[in-house]
């Protein structure tokens, strides 16, 4: 039987659940404390304010993405790696969807978090370019350096703005589903269509089919 979570861990877990379900703006520290059945003072003993909770959640998200968004060492990339990266991104986006739902507000509210996010974004772009170079070296994609840079940037723009796009298109982002986020992953994959080598096309198109979600189910 797993050991019970400590109060600090319970606060983090409950905050993530509430932020994802209701949106960060709708949740206060009093809501979090009441949800856990603890006093606000007990919560403030562990976190001085809501921004500190958000910063810790972002740190966990950042660490998770840093862990998987890198080339494997000692071997060439495969189409299976493409599946791994896309599904890992989908899982991270879903688990921390509140971050993507209202990112601009979160960064405007916390200058330190905004600075950390800029460093994170720059790191992700560097790693994404390295991964795309790996797919080129493996004979899966055919691109030059400028195309790699552009594709990494366009992919980042889609990944970080997809939830907001859904919110503006649907009138709300409160009812997000994994299928809606899966369509965002598909959009990233679709950017690569013109760069797939003939030898890899069949395998990549099978991945297209697996990730595709009809637009009518999203908007």
Describe the secondary structure blueprint for this structure.
Layout (H helix, E strand, L loop, with lengths): L6 H16 L6 H8 L3 H7 L3 H19 L10 H17 L1 H5 L1 H6 L2 H27 L7 H26 L7 H13 L7 H14 L8
Helix pairs in contact: 1-2, 1-4, 4-5, 4-8, 5-10, 8-9, 9-10
Could you walk me through the main structural features you see in this protein, from its secondary elements to its overall organization?
By secondary structure, this protein is mostly helical. The protein folds into two domains: 7-46, Arc Repressor Mutant, subunit A, CATH 1.10.10; 50-217, Orthogonal Bundle (Tetracycline Repressor, domain 2). It contains eleven helices and no strands. Helix 4 (50-68) packs parallel to helix 8 and helix 9 (145-170) runs antiparallel to helix 10 (178-190). The radius of gyration is 19 Å and the shape is elongated. The protein starts with 6 loop residues before the first helix and ends in an 8-residue tail after the last helix. Keywords: DNA-binding. This is Transcriptional regulator, TetR family. Residues 5-65 form the HTH tetR-type domain.
